[in-house]
Amino acid sequence: MQDEIVARLANALNAQFVAAEARRAEQAPKPDSIDLNFQGLACFNKGVTPDNLARARSFFDRALAADPGNVDALIGSGLVDLIEGALSFVADPNAAFAAAEAKLTKALSSVRDHALGHTWLGLVDILTKRAAEGIAECEYALALDRNLAQAHALIGQGKIFIGRAEETEAHVAEALRLSPRDTWAYACMNMVGLAKLHLGSYEQAVAWFRRSKEANRNFPSAYFNMTAALAHLDRLDEANSAAQTGLALNPAYTVSRVRAAWTARSVNSTYLAQLEPVFEGMRKAGVPE
Question: Which residues contact 28 (CB under 8 A, 6 or more apart)?
Fold first, then answer.
């Protein structure tokens, strides 16, 4: 119990620490590799929009130019590739996932027990038809750090891709219990909403997506996912409004792009069948084809 209390305090303070270090780095006449890495992390914490990710990548790349051995910056750069592919910010998500996997594998060859590195590598697996391997990678990360909230949440995400979306909420609940103020809490809430969407529990899905956007209004996926749930509830005005907000954050989002990305993530028949109503709802809400 004491370890969990310490972990929750550490998670709560982490974002404040990153923000404080990033502000200090902004004032440095010659920021070093560590300074630049903190600035990249601070960009992530503002919300994963295309612009924020581009700024984060710039800082991580500058950090690596200053010190090619900065493992945290290499993991950060890999995470940018990973998120750009996951959120369909790029035309070729598979190329983004391959770049992320190469960087994360290289980082782990230097620091084999980097728990977050294993967690993000697990997410690469989860998003590239290797959900079972990805879940195992996250479980290994938890063996290194049992209080790693991100690993708990990503196991929940992996369950969606193996057709067990009904198990997602429990894993995410554990992540939010450990780190209720985590900078990624909005993404965790979106995961539960997505699981509810897959299960056809549309009212519950809307409630989770609302929690996600209230935690971070710069996360386009929550808006787009909400459109599908609202459309199935015949709340089309709200659905269209959510679609327009999402498109303001990510103008390149289309049903065809997300369909290509999501159907490429798993061969599980339950998962694939659950996707069709999601796309139907997005179209009904006015998300461009």
Answer: 35
